[in-house]
Amino acid sequence: MIRNKKKGRLGVKPRWPFSLDDSILDKIVYLVYNYFQETDTQYIFSGGAMTVKHTLLALLNHTSTHGYELRGLMEAALGDHWVINTGQIYSTLSRLERDGLVVRQPASVDEAAERTAYELTQDGRAELEHWYHEPLSRDYRLRDAFHAKLMLSFFSGPVPPGEVLQAQRRELLSEMHELTSMRAEADPARELPWLLLLEGAIMHLEADLRWLDMCQARLNELRQMPTPRHISRPRGRPPTGETS
Amino acid sequence: MSEPTETMIIAEGLTKIYTDGTEVRALDGVDLSVERGEFVAIMGPSGSGKSTLLNLIGTLDVPTAGHVIVEGVDVSTLQGNALADFRRAKIGFVFQLFNLVPILSAVENVMLPLIPYRRQCKFDLEGRARELLDAVGLVERASHLPSQLSGGEQQRVAVARALVNEPAIVLADEPTGNVDTRAGDEVMELLRQVCDDGGRTVVVVTHSPRVAAFADRVYFLKDGAIVDQTRLGGERSLEAVWARLGLA
Fold it and tell me: Which of A153, A207, B130, B218 has the fewest Cβ atoms nearer than 10 Å?
């Protein structure tokens, strides 16, 4: 499994709010907490926040089932780097039910809470369709810190901008090397979602590296830009007597 | 019997000046070394001297000054048959434009480097060529002509051809330059296997970071000189990658 590989290579496990095997008490605390939070639990980063809510709607559209199995389905659909704890699933399901997006199926043989199966309502399906049609936008703030560093190096030294660029280039290439070997280890038959995620990261690094090449090619032009200077502006009220 | 040296390739003060009318200093005192079994990329923009450097390492061209030392032997001094023997024994080439012979089938192209020597071969040349085509996933295309193969397939045939003499060193000049991204990755993954599983030393010249990222070490070439080198990967980069993926 991927997770073992990750743990093996990095030695740490991704951090989530709760351990995967929550105690009942933890689940209750989490349920209550989330119920009053009134926000969708967001578990994703760039490219727009992704919510547990829509994930569950999408999975329930595939098949009506109970909370425990939804977690397994999510892993199967997205890869096991998305794993969330069951507490989040239960709390989200109860909010979806309250909002009329899902309903409990008629009591099944096993009546334990974890075994309650849910199905999508008409409204739930409409909400899901709306979500699919809504494009996501990615934010590009990622490299701003480096952009600032590069511009400052023109301004102040003591490290030449070319060296600043090269240090960044080395790092990005090195990360790309790791991603490239992770991609080679991924099994295209079973882990295609994960493989495509890695591919996306590789292509973003490629773009960043091309941008570094572009900066490199224009280093001389940048050097010829006038050095920025602080122009002090008088503060406060103009001194009396100077007004005509 | 001497122990094989750990350093496979050494370039010392390698200089190449072309003098057709005006003097062009394509390479200007390049020093580099490649370890046995290492995968090295030489990166630089076009016109930086990458191909010239690779041709000098592969003895396809003669330096104006400096030396190329392969396994302790100064190959810059080799001439005639000695040079051809060295190349045939030690080096496999992969070119940007594949350089397959259009009237020969895939398997014949793979056999080609050794066809003049097939009587001396102590093995079944065609059998080996088919095994290599199998290794690059093209055994069922063995009798196809290059024109009947896609760009990516042609380059994989070229990789098989580069291996037919079981060279210690494989040199590749922009091996993905004429194929699409995915086929290019396949070619690079093959070269990675040639290094990892075959224990061969691989040197690739490229302008592409995507290609260079397959290597263990990168030399940066600019205006005919090495300006930097770096070893790729490692724990720190791995952690940065996890952070990038949002999983750290």
Answer: A207
Hey, are the CB atoms on B228 and A166 less than 8 Å from each other?
yes
Judged by a CB distance cut-off of 8 A, whether residue B212 touches chain A is yes
**A92 with A151: CB under 8 angstroms?**
no
The pTM of this model reads: 0.79
Q: At residue B165, does pLDDT exceed 80?
A: yes
CA A17 from chain center: how many Å?
Answer: 15
Cβ atoms B238, A178 nearer than 8 A: yes
- Measure B2 CA to nearest chain A CA, in Å: 35
First-to-last alpha carbon distance for chain B, in angstroms, is 51
Q: Looking at the structure, do residues A85 and A190 belong to the same domain, yes or no?
A: no
Q: What CA–CA distances, in Å, run from A71 to A17, A82, A85?
A: 16, 10, 8
Task: Please tell me whether residues A70 and A118 are part of one structural domain.
Answer: yes
Classify domain B7-244 by CATH number: 3.40.50.300
Question: CA nearest B96: which of B152, B151, B170, B178?
Answer: B178
Query: ipTM of the predicted structure?
Result: 0.90
Contact B209 A45 (CB under 8 A): no
Task: Judge if A193 and A108 occupy the same domain.
Answer: no
Asked if A215 and A169 count as a contact pair (C-beta separation under 8 A), the reply is: no
Chain A contact present for B243, CB below 8 A: no
